[in-house]
Amino acid sequence: MIALVACAVGVAAQDSSKPLKPSDAVKTEVFVSLDPVPRGRQFEVAAVAQVAPGYHVQANKVLQDYLIPLTLTPDLPPGFTVVDTEYPKAQMVKFPFAKQSMAVYEGRFVVRMKIEAASTAATGAVKIPITLRFQACNDQLCLPPTKLPLEAELQVAAAGSPTKSVHPEIFGKTR
């Protein structure tokens, strides 16, 4: 069974003029695309994030050197390799305090990682710690940079084991 691990604090409707704690600015859930993940097979992990109303986070590719980009970094156990990480397209937003538009994420966005389970990956339950690093800001202030701990939980099965795609609402219907 693929487990969904909800991480971060829930975000209620917020008055963006009142600073949040950095960890309250982004609500994130982690999903895995296959159940189970056979050895020797690629699968995806998605971090689905919701930024608090009135706030934004810097995109993965920032336009100004002084800004802190959003990153998603796994701490992979032996037998796993990141094949690719796909960040969403940034929104270009002009804020009153800035001379230039900024590349940001607002509202809901998804970061996807394609990971391969090697033929040597341990079978059974596996937890992959992941760190979401970001800096949340509103139009008046930026909160301190934050490293939010997340976790992907999955089952690894023998090579060639039957598997099924899960969470088609995130990963699509075909895999």
Shape: elongated
- Secondary-structure-based class equals mainly beta
Question: What is the H level of CATH, i.e. the homologous superfamily?
Answer: Thiol:disulfide interchange protein DsbD, N-terminal domain
How much strand content do the residues show?
A: over 45%
Helix content: under 10%
Mean pLDDT, rounded to whole units?
88
Could you name the CATH class? Mainly Beta
Q: For the largest sheet, list the strands in their spatial order.
A: 1-2-5-11-8
Radius of gyration: 17 Å
Q: pLDDT under 50 segments (min length 5)?
A: 1-16
Task: Count all strands and give the number.
Answer: 15
Q: End-to-end distance, in Å? A: 18 Å
Number of spatially distinct domains:
1
Q: CATH topology, anyone? A: Immunoglobulin-like
Tally of DSSP helical segments:
1
H and E order: EEEEEEEEEEEEEEEH
Instruction: Name the CATH architecture.
Output: Sandwich
The biggest sheet amounts to: 5 strands, antiparallel
